[in-house]
Every structure is written in C-alpha cells, then in structure tokens.
Specification:
By secondary structure, the chain is mainly α. The chain is built from 13 helices and three strands; from the N terminus they run αααααααβββαααααα. Strand 1 and strand 2 form a beta hairpin. Helix 6 runs antiparallel to helix 8, helix 6 crosses helix 9 and helix 6 crosses helix 10.
Amino acid sequence: MLEELRRRNYAESTIRSYIHTLKHFSRYFNRPPDQLGPAHIRQYQAALFTKFKLQPNTVTLRLAALRFFYVKVLKKGWSVTETPYPKKVLHLPHVLSPEEVARLIDAAEFPFHRILLMTLYATGARRAEVAHLKIGDVDSQRMVVHIRGGKGRKDRDVMLSPKLLDALREYWRGLRRKPREWLFPGGRWHTQSQPVTTKVLWTACQQAARRAGLEDKRIHPHTLRHCFATHLLEAGADLRTIQMLLGHRDLEETTIYLHLSRRHLSATASPLDALSLQDQREQ
C-alpha cells in the first residue's frame, strides 16, 4: 500500500493517515487486512461512530483509505451501495474579529511564536505550508509569498504584507545563526536543517489564546486562515480572488465565508423589519 501511495505521489500527510487507518482496521479485528471483507468494513464503519465517536467527515476519510487499499492494492471491487459514505456535515468555522486577532498576536509568548502567528494570518496559509516556507519564497521585489506544494501539490502566490515583511526582517536579524534553506528552522535555537514542526504552530496558537483570554474560542492555526478569508471578504475582496489566495480547488469551498462575513450578513434586512407590528407596551 505504501508503494502504491508513493507511486501516485500522494502527500506525506495523506500517506500517514491512510497507513494509520489500515493498521487500526487490522488491529480492530486482530487479522491481516487482506483477510477482511465488506462485512468487516461495514462493522468497522459502525464502530467508528458508536465506539470511537468520530465525526462523519473523519469517517469518510477512513473509508477512503480502506477503499484505496481494496481497489488499488488488492485489485478488488468496492460497492458504494454496500458501504455508503456518511452524509457530509458542514460546520461553520469560528472566526475572530480583527481586534481579537491583534490581541492573539500581541499575546504570543515568544518572538518566534509571534512571527508564526503573523505569517499565518497575513498569508492565509495552512500550518504545514507556513512550516515549510523557504527563505527564497519571500519575494520582496514582487511583494508576494510563494506557497509551494500546498494541498493537492499545487503552488500559489499570496500577497506579502509590508508589515509582515518588516516583522520577518526583524526576526531574521535576531537569529543567532542564519538559516540557509528554511525560513522557520526547527530546534530550540532555530538552527536545525529541518523546518519547524506543525505542532509548534499549534502550540503558538494555544498559548497565545490562553494569554489573551481567548481560550474559550478554541483557536488553532486554521482559525487564522478562516480569519484571513473572512476579513478580506468584509474588506471588499471578491470570492474568486479569495479562492485563488486560499488555494481552493472549487469556488464552492470558498462560499462558506459568505456565511461568516458581517458585511454580507448585514447587507440584507430581516423580513421582520418590514412588518408593522403593534408596540407591545401599547397593548
């Protein structure tokens, strides 16, 4: 299965997820996965909901991994009728106000955390994309940041904020040893030859949220991506531009931010406002 995934150039995160699913499936029945059939898959799918309490979208990803194994590796058939994907659930993401984003960034515990949070919000990039930024990806001549190898192996350019550029230069001057490749190297003193892990970006968000008194907002790196898109929409940017900046394959993915934009929500009055109701105090 690992060979088939790599032959098709699947992302490393997808490979890890698919292999993890197959191991979990095999251990659940204590049998090699090639000895398990459709009945076991249906039983496993039910257990993902009832025993492991997973969300429908997560169960869909687990089934996709098993489908890949049976169809691409074992060369067996897969019946969607017998093993239907659960109905997709659409949750509106939580979005912070610009004032709350400023509080979050200002509450960063370390300067390194601060520059990570600023980069997440200024570019709208995913946490893995920020972690894997290279020095050459910051183009101060064209004022763009190159996002390489994003979701779906797609590259894209996003705007380079002058404020972010100034912060990046200050961050660079403060480094004990200048990195040669990665913009945000790993290690305690940020001197490793490997990029910072995505866990560091997660920790930066969690600690800053706690210090800013925003821990009840359940803030994570993707929250700043949602804030980036929603605040652009509220500032007048069109959906197509935001789609390109986020790297969404389908415009439908981007339309979710219409549900979050205060400008769009308040553009249409509620029908209640058109009613001539008697004042309750006069009754």
